[in-house]
Every structure is written in C-alpha cells, then in structure tokens.
Fold each of these.
Amino acid sequence: MRRYIIALLATVMVACGSDPSTSTGSPGSPSLKILSPVSGASLSSPSVTVQVTASDDTAVSRLTYRVNGAGEVAVTITPGPTVSASFAVSSLRAGSNTIVVTAYDTSGQSSSASLNIQVSSSNPSTYPIPSGPTFYVGPGGSNTNDGSRERPWATITYAAAQLKPGQILRVLPGTYNEAVSVSVSGTASQRIVIASDTRWGAKINAQGALFGIDVRGSYIDVIGFEVTNSTNSGIISWRPYNRFLFNHVYGIRAQCDSNGGAGVNMSSPDSSDGAMIGNLVHDIGDLSAGFCTRIHGIYQGAPRGTVQNNITYRARGFGITTWHAATAVTISNNLSFANLYGGISVGSGDNTRGNVAENFLVANNIVVGNPRGISEENNTGVNRFVNNLVWNNTTNWRLQTSSHQGSLSLDPGFVNYRPDGSGDYTLSSSSPAIDKGIPERAPEFDFLARPRVQGATLDLGPFEVR
C-alpha cells in the first residue's frame, strides 16, 4: 500500500441549502440527512462508509446512491416512516468524487443529498509480490483462456486450482462476484502467491457465502484484496503457514451464534504459524445489535501466529483476539479502536490441545476508545506486554497472569482521530508514540509497505512517520 493514511471520509456538499448534508425537495418529499462522514475531511482510501437517515409522512420505500454519475445502487432498508442506513462505497477515483444519495416515498416522490469527496492522487504503495511463473485473472476473461495477461482467466477459484508451488496469480482490478476457494498448497521454499495486481483493486463480493476467501492449503499468500459481503469470515485459513497481507475486509455479516465470525481469521487450531499483516478490517457484524464476543476483527486461534501492522475498528467483539489453541503469538504495531467489546485480547479456550495462552509478545500497539483496552481472557499464562499505548478505553488494562511494562496512557496524537473510521490515523509530528517501540520481532515494513524504522527506533502503531 503506498501512502494510505486511511482517512475514510470526506468533504460534504449539497447543491441546495445551507446544510450540505441535508436534502431539500418539493413539499411532501422525504427528508434526507447524511450523518457521516462529516464535512471538511479528505480521503486517502478509495472506500468510504456513508451513514444516512430519511423520514417521510407516509413511508420511505427505497434508498439508493450513485457514484460519479453511474447508475443507481439500491441500499437494503426496511421501509418505514423513518429509516437509518449505513453502506460502503468503494472504487472511488483519485481527485473529486460525487456520491448522490436519494430517498423515495411510497408515492414516488424523492429527494437527494450529495457528497463531494476528494481522494488523494497518490497511489497505494507497491507491496512486494515475488517473481516467478505468473498467471492472471481479469474482468472479461475466460476459464478456457491460457491465464496470460492478454488472455486472463475469469474466476479466481478456477485460477487458484491451476497453481503449482512457486507460481504467482495476479488478479487484475475489477469486481469478482464469487466466494474464492483455495485448496492447493505451496512449499516452504516455493510459496503460492495470490495477489491483487493493485492494492484493493481486485474486489471480492462473496454474495452471502460463508467465506470471502477460503484457504484450505498451506504456504499460501493472499495479498491486497478487498473482501466484503460474506456471512462468517472475510478471509479464513484452515491449514498452517499461510499469510494474509495488505487486504481490506469490511461488511462481514457474521451472526452472533455458535459459529460467530471475523474479518480475517486463523481460526482452526491447525492454522498455526500463519501471519496477518497490514490489513484494514472494519464493520464486522451487525453493529446496531450491540457487542458480541463471538464476532471479531482479527482472530487467531492457533499457535505461533503473527499479527502485525493491522488497523481494525468497529467489530462487534474485539478488534484483535486469540482463542482456541493460541499460544506463543506475536501481536505488535497494530491499531485497534472503537470496537464494541474490546481492543486486543489474549486468551485460549474451547480447544482439545490443552494449550495455554502464554509466551505471547504484545508490543508497540495503539488501542483507543474501546470498552476494554488490552486484556487477558480465560486460560492464560505469563505473557509480555511491552510499550503499548492504551488511551481513552473504559478500562485500559485487564490482565490476569501477566503485567505490562513501558506502557503509555496518553492521547496518541493522530493527525485526525475519528471513531467512525473517517479520520487520519497517522501520527502527528508531536505524537508521544514516535520512536517508542521495541525492535524485538518487529516487522520489516509498516502498513504502507514502507521501511519500518525511519528514526531512532520504530514508532508505535501501524504507521512509521519518521
């Protein structure tokens, strides 16, 4: 990812009226107001979550949006006199974008409000995709093609099944309406790489399937995808030695039942020695239903995992959590904020291996604005919690069998903190989190794929600023 400051919103303008987020229409038409994002922000990400409310004397029957003059896209609502909705808009272009939201009543009258969104012209940074025999999937391709760039395959699942150890699959920008299944395996010396050709350019719409990308093999790297609309997990691994890097996972419709779910998931005790690095994970589960301890942003259920440089917010449970057979896991340089239950938890349980959640290193994280900050849960041993910044959580620390060292409880000094994801979460020049990290087990790069250490030592959180 190149210079992705994760500002998830925008400058808001409306053609008529003094309040740019409120519609004006003919008498009897619905009243429509954009609640979020707020006016005056700018966007570095090509995706944004829009929150609106609409009301009508009879009933609001339909809600739609249009992006840059394209066709209307329906928003799922329950018709009624008052309607509230939240929806994600992706594929914004660099420069100026206009999103027009329209509410209709039962008589066919309508009113609209507009967002004018400025997106930074800088492209996401180049993340490392290794060289090797390379194949392609692209819009307009065919599974009868040869998989070359000129004659790409059509579906990612078909393409993945053709791969051998050491081979690369690059997925060209576009929307792929499929739940991706990966059953092949690489080897320790010849991994299989399945990568979006540009970060978040290949968009996986799982269309209500359990998993967006379901990895059943080993030694697989999944890099740079946008994944949404699955009902359990966005990306999941069932086998060891897999890596999920630089992905954007959101809008996962996990249910608060015995299965639960997560944005990025190393759930199975057999998915050991995996890595979840540099992912943006948010809006996991139905947030309007309140917290649920079975639905999380990032989930590590196996031994010896690595969870680094991730940004996670607005999950119904923890932003980052461990359970099942998790032990000896590294959790470092993450940002977890505004989750409904907690920021980061370390724990184990419901496993047949008898593992204790011990020998963890939890370091250099920033955890802000959660009911619980950093906690130990259930079956824990001695773990190391070193140089973390926890701030403005209802309870910053809830440790059972360990203690924390070098921690800060200070405003991290983001450029522009907003709990809804529309802010800029890089560190300002005066941030107390700069040069406060420990180098032990530190990642080589940051969330933007830049070198991890640029100053005296590494900074806390996912961004390295100087």
Amino acid sequence: MNSGPKRASAGCLVVLLVAWLACLPLRVPAAMAVVELGGGLCGGLFGFCIAMVTRTRKPVFIYFWLGLAALTLWPVYAGWPYANPAAITVWPGGSTLFYSAFDVMRPGAFMVALVPPFALLGQHGPDT
C-alpha cells in the first residue's frame, strides 16, 4: 500500500500543531485552537467532498458533492468561528500585524486540512 497519503496527512497535522504553537506568545491559545479547529474542520470537509467527486461518475452526485464543497467555503469567508482580535496580547514594540493572526490562521488551517481526506480517499488515477 502506498504510504504517501498517510505521510502527507501526518505532515499536515504537524503543520497545524506547529502553527498553533507559534501563536502561543500571543497569549490566546484557547481562542486560537478554536479558530484553527473550525477552519480545519471546514477544510477537511471540503477535501472529503472533493474526494467524493472523484469517486463518482454520475453527474447528479458530482454536482451534489460540489455543492456541499461550496458550502464549506462560507464559514472561512464569513470569519467563523469568531475570535476577538482585541484579546491578543502583543509584547511592547511588537508589530500590529499580529492582531490579524486569527484571520491568517482560519484560511491557513482550511488549506492544510483539506489535504488529508483528499489524499486518503480521492481517486488519483485515470478512468479505466
């Protein structure tokens, strides 16, 4: 069995953990975990839906899975789950760019989390 998708999935989980650890100096670990898990959940659902598109040949099911995939994009666009940027504590002399950490983490977690379900469940070969 090909272990590439499993290594890619493990690597994605490591990236999400390291990104969360990098945000610890901002002193909002619980809020950052909620934002990362919410974005990751939506990304994982998106990857699953796209993987299901590759597994079916019936146009009705293809459009059904594409519609569900499109619905998973809305929470990232709308800023769900909400986290208060004012809760971020930036050290003296720190950049004000750190106040956008939640807005960076949400789509970042979405993009990283869509890889494992697609890598593990998607059909990656030509039609036979």
Amino acid sequence: MFKRLLLLGFLSGILAGASALIYQKVYSTSVGVDFSAIARPAGIMVTSIIGGIIAACGYWILNKWLKEKTEIVFNFIFVILSFASILPAFAFKLPLDATSPELFPGLVIPMHFFPALAFFTLEPLFIKISEKTKSTVA
C-alpha cells in the first residue's frame, strides 16, 4: 500500500501543480498582472509534488494508527492544514516595484487548496475500499 500511496502523492502533486500553473495563467490574463517572477512556475510544481508526497506519507502513518477512521481524520487534518497554509500569503512581503500587490493573495490562496483537491480526486483510483479498513505494508 505504501508504494501506491507514494504514487498517489506524486501524481496528485503533478495534477495540483499543473492546475496551479493553469490557474496562474488564467489569473494573470484576466487581471492583467503577472506575478510569475514572485510565484515561480518551477516552485509551484515542486511545492505541489512535495505536498502530495507528504500527504501520502501522512495517510500511511494515520492508516497504521487509526485503521478504520483513517480517511475522515486524514481529510479533516489535510483541510485544516490547507486553510492554515494560506495565512503566510497574507503576510508575504512583495517587492516594492510589484504592480497591484493587492491582487497577489487572489492568485496564491486558491493554489493552497489544489493539493488537497487533487489528492481527494485521485485517492479512489489508488486505495481500494478493503485497504481503507485494514493496515497493510505492501
């Protein structure tokens, strides 16, 4: 199960990163301000993949401890952490030459939820119902 969870984390990170890059392009086009020098595409992809892998490891650890209640506890923790992760976006200091800095939170805050959405979307493809109720190491 651990190998499948790592694959789930990696692929959900890629999906989240690709979604974030598409959102960045659409947002920049629609508001006319480009923050790609601050929120770099490579950084977005790497952060999304790392977030997906960390989420997969967290799911595996919770599955070891909680067995049947893994999914609800994991989902709750993942969503709480996603909400908590938006706080630094409000405190982020942009360069003084940044155009329309008030639009920056509108770009990055939704991106913080993309890893959770991607993980929740792909999870049924990787974790069978029978595996959610028992702890396996394979």
Amino acid sequence: MATRDPDEKSKPEGTEPPAHSLHQVRAAQMRARATRWAIGKSALGTVFLIGALAYALGPDRRLPSSRLWMALLVVLSTINVGLGLRTFSRVRRRARRFWLPATILWGLLATGLLRLLVAR
C-alpha cells in the first residue's frame, strides 16, 4: 500500500480544478438549448410547407384566397427553416455562410413544387 510523502504539501479537499468548469457546462447548456430551438423552427417550417401543399392539392386551389394562403405559408416556411439553419450553423460553427443560400434554395424549391401542383 502506498503512503503519502510527509514532505509533500497537502491540499485541502475541493481545491483542485473540476474536470469541467462551470463556463464549459453553461456553454454546453446554451448550445443544447439553441439546437432544440433550431429543431423546433425547422419542424415548424416543414409543417407550414405541408400546409401549403395541402392547399395546392385541395379542390379549390385556383381561388385567390387559396393562392394567398399558399404564398403566406411558403413565406412562413422559408423564414422558419432559415432561422433553424442559421442557428444550426452558429451552434456547429461550420458552414456559416451556407445557411442563406440553403434557405433561398428551400424557398425556390417549395415555390416551384407548388406551381407544379397548382398548374395540374
């Protein structure tokens, strides 16, 4: 059994630095909260897009009020997906400049899909 060296200065308990400092733990908590928020925004954007697709597949899709709702839902979808992508890029600290083109691409593809569905 090993014994302590009597010449070694003893440190009181609890003075050693913790494995994870409070700053690191708080930063991890904030990243987790931001990630959950981004997932929620992305899911909400998807729900808005599904709503727009429901209007596009409905029986009265050519009415002006239906087209207005589809346009509004696509805009809300694009905004929410963009906010989610921006938060993901900030949390992950990668591809910070690609969230805006990806959001624009989302909006263009959603608009193109709706135009195809309404035209048929």
